[in-house]
Amino acid sequence: MSTEEKASAEDRAAAAEGSATSSTAAQGLTIVARTQGQLVRRRFLRHRAAMISLTILVLVILLAYTSIGFAGIPGWWIWNYYTPAKVVNKGAPTLSLWPTFLGGEGFAIGVHPFGQDDLGRDYFALTMRGAQISIMIAFVVGIVSTVIGVTIGALSGYYRGWVESGLMRFTDVMITIPILVIAAVLGQRFGGAGPIVLAVVIGLVVWTGLARIIRGEFLSLREKEFVEAARALGAKPKRIIFRHILPNTVGVITVAATLAIASAILLESALSYLGFGVRAPDTSLGLLVSTYQNAFTTRPWLFWWPGLFIITIALTVNFIGDGLRDAFDPRQNRVRA
Amino acid sequence: MTVPPTTPPDDVAGGSIYGPARQESDLFQVVEPSQGAEVFRSQLSSVGDVEVLKVENLTVGFPTEDGLVRAVRGVSYALHEREVIGIVGESGSGKSVSSMAVMGLLPKGARITGTISFRGQNILSMTRQQQRSLRGRKIAMIFQDPMTAMNPVYTIGDQLAEAVLSHEVMPKKQAMARAEEMLALVGIPQPKARLGSYPHEFSGGMRQRAMIAMAVINNPDVIIADEPTTALDVTVQAQILEKLIEVKDAFNAAIVLITHDLGVVAGMAHRTLVMYAGRPVELGKTDEVFYRPRMPYTAGLLGSIPSRGETTRLRPITGAPPSLINLPDGCPFSPRCPLATDICRTSEPELAPTDAPDHLAACHHWDVLAAAPDPTAFFRTESDARK
Amino acid sequence: MAPFILRRLFISFFVLLGATFIVYVLVANAGDPRSALVESADPGKATKIASMTRNLSLDVPVIPRYFAWLGGALGCLIGKCDLGNTSTGASVISGLSVAVGATLRLVVFALLIAVVVGVSVGIVTALRQYSGLDYSVTFLAFLFFSLPVFWIAVLMKQFLAIKFNDWLRAPTIPPWAILVLAVFLGLLAAGVVGGNRRRRLAAFAGAGIAVALILIYLSVTDWFAEPGIRPAIMIVMSAITAVLSTALFAGFRSRTVLYATMVTAAVGVICYFTLDSILADPTVLLILGLLVVALLVSAAIGAAMGGLYRSQAIKACMLTGFGCAGLVFAAQLLAAVPAYSAKVNGVVIATIGATTPNFSGNFWETTLDQLGHLILPTIAIVLISIASYTRYTRSSMLEVMNADYIRTARAKGLTERTVIVRHGFRNALIPITTLVAIDVGGLIGGAIVTETVFGWSGMGKYFNDALKIPDPNAVMGFFLITGTAIVLFNMIADIAYGFLDPRIRLS
């Protein structure tokens, strides 16, 4: 092709794509190209509930892990969670928030802001320790179940024949067992082996919902033309799965993983409450509630603080998941009134 | 592009509806109307006198997070009994939105101004009840994709009968009988048995016929067909269009035919309205608009149609339509127009009469087009000439 | 259809088989039921340990033990169930049959409420997307979804039971409470009604004032101490039921349906006045029989008076009849409250168990007793489930309302009510029904925490107690029932889907 032809061909090609060349510059508009990731991030940052929740969650996690230290690294809080201290204020919280001009005692943190338990241990430290364990378990369960769920879902969604039926039947079998039931049975056996072992073991059995969702995505994506094209070019299944289909399911996976973490925290607290989860001497938020539920009338703070933390963590993670779901979904058509 | 199958037999070098075979050197040949299109359009019955629909200065805006989307900016046309008007334009030109405004189907946040008169009464100032009594009864609409346009869980008969029963109280049996009549009218075999079928059991063409039946079952005065053949096979398209004309004559109705396919309009419409960026840019008798376009956009559209036997490159209009939120000053087509001058870029032309009566165009330089022997030539580039 | 069901049953059988194997192995490895005895200081523990070993075949390795258990379980298919004994020697079957009944009583009721309320709220928020009501409901849904049951249960026991029972002794409603409730319900009405500012303001004022007046009346007359439905109230509420039923099924374009429902309501009011003697101490059978009669009579009225709108009239009248029957039932129940309260020393809302021990009374008092014990655990279950129903219905309804056929329905000139109910909801119902069916399947074994917290001796508590030991046969018996329910209802869900969606009719 001669240079003029090439130039005009490029011009036309550029015009066909609508990108910023002479043709569109003449319209007085610049089109800024954004990647999918940038679009998603923009939409997520606009979702107020998700952003607020993200901030709160990060603050809570930071508080839990830095205040009393973790894994040998010391924290900035003066008390730890296992040494009894002198009983102050009859064990009631010394935290006061009500300002003086409204009749309260002003803002003060005091010696034991969350109060003390029946043995005199600082309850803030205890709650933070419980939060640490609960958060850790929730994230490990979330990650393990996501990995397994995506693997099984992808394989059973992409391949046909024996692989598909075999994995599907296996998933059906696991679905038949209620999650709390199997988690409790495993917790009975492994609960004493420490929170991480417990978390991994639970993660091994709670992936069924995720697997189903991913399988559905793969089933619909495997019929798309770009997969056919890749196959026609001779791409191996592994490449098709990882390079073509999986990136299109990132949205679904992220959302599902986030919601898995949220339900994991509720699952763990329920298990610990029933006695099949974290055992003494370790503690978790669920275990704290279980231990002190009868103290509600006499020492309500022992009951309120761990519960509030469970709710906060679960709620914020749920909102973040919802924000992610909205961010990945391109069909938002909001008309400002 | 689809052409009603009435072209005259072609020569070796081919011929198109727009003229006899063009010689390679005849780059500026005058295009004469061919016999085929004229014959087909003459089969359309004459237009009545009564004005059934009159749209005046219709504007529609949608407030969004990024600003006000001005989808329709001043559409006006009048429609008489038995008349077919074709509204042509690309996606985003506002052709569908203006018709949705006529039906009253726009979402709640839409801002509408102007008047839409049905037999003299302004629809936009009616109560919701009154609007609803017109919808589906006096003004009916046929949508693009018949598969998704019908409820999958109810039978065809149920949905047709529902259209009747929502405007007239009668026993269900009677409504079903009317539904059967309609199915027969649109050419669906074994209509009585088909009453009990579900939409997914029909083929695409039959589904669209059923949609036509649903639209005309209450004897409407105006039928709005929004891209009725776009989702169908080429062979079925012609049948559907023929059926539409039959039905129109049977009920003395007028049709607003919305499409992006010029061939459909050429064969069916008495008058053509070309829309661009939310505004009408040319309005006139179909023959006038097609053979003597007075707006560069129309000329560009006509020039971009590939014709049989032509061996030159395709000639699209370069560039893309403007954003409806940030419209540039002046004529919205000026960035892509080969005839654009300074005045075009500063002042938006009104839809004004040109040299022929009732032929309106929104262009400052319509006279340049009128003087040119081949208006589509302006859109050719040098590389074409060399071939 | 039949070959499909048979094939599903066949596959489900083997799926269940596989699941029982997995659970058996896990439970067998979860611990030794004899460990409590081993660690105890009981002098006779050696014999006890030996007898337990024999009883539960604990000397046999796990896999053959599984097959032995399986043999007994398979006998259930031919009517000779043998699920073994618990570690204490009791029969698993007898323990389970008691537990199942208790759980069913709890979850059926809770599920019904959760579904009805959840789906209604979901539909309303879908239709009022992005409104204040939508955001508030969404936030509440998320909040309830994130609540740990055992934590909220303690709060409920304190405030909804203990404090409520105390309040019942002197049931006046303080003015601030009246104000708060009136404002809150007014806002709710405004949100539901939608439309322009004037309409919403009118709804707010109307609902707020109505609520305030009702609450003042209730407080001044000490209604809660001696509740009941006075004749005037009965007439008004029956009329309202008639109007609402008409609005839902037929709209007000023609008066025919309205007249029919009004007549039905009138019949209901007559029953209210005349059936006192029959309803003094009825049996459950009598109540059910009367309900059936009420529905038939309402249907007859609808058919007779419906005219051109016969099918809609029948549905509307039946709903009215059902509502009025409910009102009559409630009237009798409420009238028995003082007597009941006296018998239980004022503990009207109970916190533990399913019934008051050693309680005796007539039908109404016993029913009140059961209801009083049901309320708290039911609310707990409803709170948790309602969130997912609301969200699911909302998204399903939104997807449906954006579909093309809704636009076609509007283009045909149908009223908005018809579009929403007949076209929108009918299609949104398909995935919701599947969800409900699957949920029912999971509920039988799913209320473990709730039952434990409220001392409800159902399947959940059975499982909890059994797993603590761990007691293999008892846990397996529990799982057999819950697993079968899950598998069965998953199959029902698929069948229902095919039934409701003609595109997926099973060939």
What characteristics describe this protein?
heterotrimer, B: 387 residues, eight-stranded mixed β-sheet, 15 helices, 32% helix, C: 507 residues
Short description:
The complex is a heterotrimer of chains A (337), B (387) and C (507). With 337 residues, chain A is mainly α. Helices cover 65% and strands 0% of the residues of chain A.
What is Rg of chain A?
A: 27 Å
Q: Outline the low-pLDDT stretches of chain A.
A: 1-29, 333-337
Share of residues in helices of chain A: 55-70%
Query: Shape of chain A, please?
Result: elongated
Topology:
The complex is a heterotrimer of chains A (337), B (387) and C (507).
Chain A: H1 3-17, H2 22-27, H3 36-46, H4 48-67, H5 123-158, H6 162-176, H7 179-190, H8 195-203, H9 208-221, H10 225-232, H11 237-248, H12 250-274, H13 285-292, H14 301-328
Chain B: H1 35-42, E1 51-64, E2 67-80, E3 84-88, H2 95-103, E4 111-118, E5 121-122, H3 128-134, E6 139-142, H4 146-149, H5 156-165, H6 172-185, H7 191-194, H8 204-216, E7 222-226, H9 234-251, E8 254-259, H10 262-268, E9 271-276, E10 279-285, H11 286-291, H12 296-303, H13 342-346, E11 352-353, E12 360-361, H14 366-371, H15 382-386
Parallel strand pairs in B: 3-8, 3-9, 6-7, 7-8
Antiparallel strand pairs in B: 1-2, 1-4, 4-5, 9-10, 10-12, 11-12
Chain C: H1 2-29, H2 35-39, H3 45-55, H4 62-74, H5 92-127, H6 132-145, H7 149-169, H8 175-193, H9 197-220, H10 231-249, H11 256-274, H12 284-305, H13 310-335, H14 337-343, H15 363-401, H16 404-411, H17 416-446, H18 448-454, H19 459-468, H20 472-500
Helix pairs in contact in C: 1-20, 5-15, 5-17, 5-19, 6-15, 7-15, 7-18, 8-9, 10-11, 10-13, 11-12, 11-13, 12-13, 15-17, 16-17, 17-20, 18-19, 19-20
What this model shows, in words?
Chain A has helices spanning 3-17, 22-27, 36-46, 48-67, 123-158, 162-176, 179-190, 195-203, 208-221, 225-232, 237-248, 250-274, 285-292, 301-328. By secondary structure, chain A is an all-alpha fold. Chain B is built from 15 helices and twelve strands. Mean pLDDT of chain B is 82; it is low at 1-39 and 382-387. Helix content of chain B is 32%, strand content 19%. With 387 residues, chain B is α/β, with parallel strands linked by helices. The relative contact order of chain C is 0.13. The model of chain C has no long low-confidence stretch (mean pLDDT 87). Classes of the chains: A mainly alpha (337), B alpha/beta (387), C mainly alpha (507). The A-C interface holds A 49, 169-170, 172-178, 180-182, 184-186, 188-189, 262, 266, 269-270, 273-276, 286, 289-290, 293, 296-297, 303, 307, 310-311, 314-315, 318-319, 322, 334 and C 11, 14-16, 18-19, 22-23, 26-27, 29-31, 130, 139, 142-143, 145-151, 154, 158, 442, 445-446, 448-449, 452, 463-464, 467-468, 470, 475, 478-479, 482-483, 486-487, 490.
